[in-house]
Amino acid sequence: QVQLVESGGGLVQAGGSLRLSCASSEVIYRISAMSWYRQAPGKQRELVATITSAGSTNYADSVKGRFTISRGNAKNVGYLQMNSLKPEDTAVYYCNILQSWPRSDYWGQGTQVTVSS
User: Which residue from 39, 64, 113, 114 has the least number of CB within 10 angstroms?
Assistant: First the structure.
């Protein structure tokens, strides 16, 4: 069973940066897309950024120009570079992998990001 582990979260002041990493317990083949989601207290989980197997990226409007998603290799499946962080970015951030075959959907346990004002 594939397990994803996020790391790199923490406490940072507004305007600061963090780099989140997503690692897998085993190499995942045929990844169709990797995404980062976040969930703030009392709110629904929202999509932050996606990168497809073709390298296309998509970002939530709230993070465009500040966050950058990228793919890794082997078990380091991907990253989220977060710059110019704002207090409203405070949330638990989750890594998600969609595998095309066999069709699978993997989630990590999340990493807390807290941005102080």
Answer: 64
